[in-house]
Each structure stands twice: as structure tokens, then as C-alpha cells.
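About this split. The held-out portion is used to measure sequence recovery: a designer receives only the C-alpha cells and must propose an amino acid at every position. Recovery is the fraction of positions where the proposal matches the reference. Here is one held-out target exactly as it appears in the evaluation file.
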């Protein structure tokens, strides 16, 4: 059970000499789910760890300006998602590969990753997910692993719930086809 609700954490943040405690509560509450949200997109533990840290640096920097127009975790997921997409786009430009080639590189790195603890079935699922276009992969991960509601995903990705439902449905079909094929 969480020690503080998000509203209590935000209230604590604005109490003099309590902002560090509030921020530590945010990290305690959200570090693990944010790490795994990022990790499923970038695959590599070190990259996910760095991006998680970058996410929380931005949370720290901008928390005082958070307007409560969305839920705190939605705002943090949005920062993490933007950091991750920016990282993948930079990686794509740096290697001068098509996005699909970067995804193949990530899929190949799964087998060599000392931090990947899945079995053969999990490895096949991860490779199937990596075969998806970036947006479908993101939507699938957020729905399947993070168990976010379409409305929450809509707030994070600034996309309609109908488009998200369609993306998720198409992603599931592509994953099923990939698994049958391989």
C-alpha cells in the first residue's frame, strides 16, 4: 500500500523543507513502473536506467509548475514516453538505419542481455513486439504491461481513445501473426 496519495505528495512538495521528501516519495512510488515502461521500448538495461534518471530529473525540474490538469502518474509517464521516443529517434539518426533496422538491433540484443530473464516464449513475444511500428509498440506496452486505461493513454499520447483502441487491436493481430510465423 502506498504511503501517500499523489495529491498528498503534491501538497507535501509545496510545504517548505518538505519538497525533497515529496520528491523521494515520487521516486519510491514510480521509479519501478517508469523503468519498465522505458525498458520495454529501449530493451537495454543501461539505456532504460539512464532514461529513467533523465525522466526524474525533468520531474524534479518541472514539478513546481505541474498544473494538476492530469494525474501525476500520467504526467510522469508522458515525460518518460517523450524521453524514450527522443532517445530512439536520436539512435535512429545516429546509426543512419531505418527505424526497422534499429528494432532488429534491439531484438538481437535481447538474447545477449544479461538482465533479460525471460524464457523462450517471453523472448519470442518481445521480438514480436519489437517488430511493431513504434506507436503500436508503445500502445501495446502501455495497455498490456502497464495496464493503463485508454483514457489515460490518450492523456499521455494526445491521441483519441478510438485511435488507441485500433492501434492496440492491430498490434495484437500482428503479434499473433509473428508468433505463428516464427
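Reference sequence for scoring:
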Amino acid at each position: 500500500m502506498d504511503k501517500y496519495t499523489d495529491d498528498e505528495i503534491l501538497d507535501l512538495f509545496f510545504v517548505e523543507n518538505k519538497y525533497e521528501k515529496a520528491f523521494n516519495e515520487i521516486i519510491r512510488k514510480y521509479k519501478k513502473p517508469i523503468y519498465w515502461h522505458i525498458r520495454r521500448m529501449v530493451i537495454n538495461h543501461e539505456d532504460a536506467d539512464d532514461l529513467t534518471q533523465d525522466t526524474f530529473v525533468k520531474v524534479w525540474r518541472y514539478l513546481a509548475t505541474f498544473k494538476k490538469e492530469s494525474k501525476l502518474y500520467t504526467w510522469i509517464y508522458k515525460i518518460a514516453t517523450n524521453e524514450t521516443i527522443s532517445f530512439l529517434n536520436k539512435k535512429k539518426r545516429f546509426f543512419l538505419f531505418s527505424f526497422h533496422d534499429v528494432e532488429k538491433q534491439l531484438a538481437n540484443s535481447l538474447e545477449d542481455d544479461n538482465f533479460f530473464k525471460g524464457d523462450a516464449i517471453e523472448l519470442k513475444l518481445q521480438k514480436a513486439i519489437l517488430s511493431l511500428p513504434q506507436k503500436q509498440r508503445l500502445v501495446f506496452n502501455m495497455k498490456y504491461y502497464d495496464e493503463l486505461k485508454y483514457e489515460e493513454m490518450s492523456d499521455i499520447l494526445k491521441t483519441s481513445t478510438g485511435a488507441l483502441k485500433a492501434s492496440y487491436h492491430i498490434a495484437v493481430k500482428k503479434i499473433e501473426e509473428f508468433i505463428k510465423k516464427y
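Annotator remark: The CA atoms of residues 39 and 48 lie 5 Å apart.
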